[in-house]
Design a protein that fits this description.
- This protein is mostly helical.
- It has 13 helices and no strands.
- The longest helix has 25 residues.
Amino acid sequence: MKTFSSAQWRAAVEWLQRDGRTLDRALFAYSFRHGSAAAVLRELATYQNVDGGFGHGLEPDIRTPASSPLATSVAFGRLRRLSAAADHPLVRRGIGYYLATYDAAGQRWPMAFADVEAAPHAPWWTFDDLERNFAEFGLNPTASVLGHLYDYPGLVPDDLAAAVFGAVLQRAQSRADAMEMHDLLCLIELADARTLEPGQRAAVVAQVERALPTLLIQDPARWDGYGIKPLDIAPAPGARFAGCVARELVEQQLDHWIEAQQTDGAWPIPWSWAEVDAAAWAQAQRDWQGHQITMRLATLAAYGRVEWSEVYQSATLPSVG
């Protein structure tokens, strides 16, 4: 079993200091330097638009400043991590955006709108292809958005979440034996919603547990590629679905991460769209790497894999407020 050394930790933190987004530096400080949730929320606010939605490259492969349900779902993932209160302006305005962009006829939320084309983006986010590429948005991003609504039920019409839940569960049941990986990740986000009733949560958990064995990449030789790996499902020992992954696989992937860190302190990103726009991809890649560093350091720490001596004497991050 390998240990993430203090030198590796310093390299990762120095990468964040040099190339990371201020948001990711604030998240790191919140996790490891007694930084405040308020500082993270202030940084997250810079990605929110007047319509309440989020954009401005918060999802790094969509560079448009315009709002999208997808980028807004990324923001609500951060809000959940911070246990943001329902009366916080970011939350209230964000839920308002979700309600305004809900497609009642389809009981779904689209990924994005035509203004995604007004800025650089990965080719899989081309607007004309979105509905076909993402199975009419039935689970992705709809299940994720639904989970955020269940986090803040007091801001949502009483019948809306229940109606969408029934549609999402039916779709999940119909796809469970041939589910796409992002659909599964959105269901996991729904399963973690704060106010699901026990029966609802059990129904979602059952669909995740049914689909997971087919999608989980268990071969270490494939862990540098794209797909769902053990630590995506078990990012901490107490994660809801950690028990669905063999602990041996978790430990092997932790070893793999420790071995795979680059000399500059970051890890590679297993996709690219440099052939579409090299300059825009270079920035998106940095944004992804900064986010990845914050998440991987948290997971390595959660599993006790960090050599803590000298860690807090390592390179410090500039103040984010």
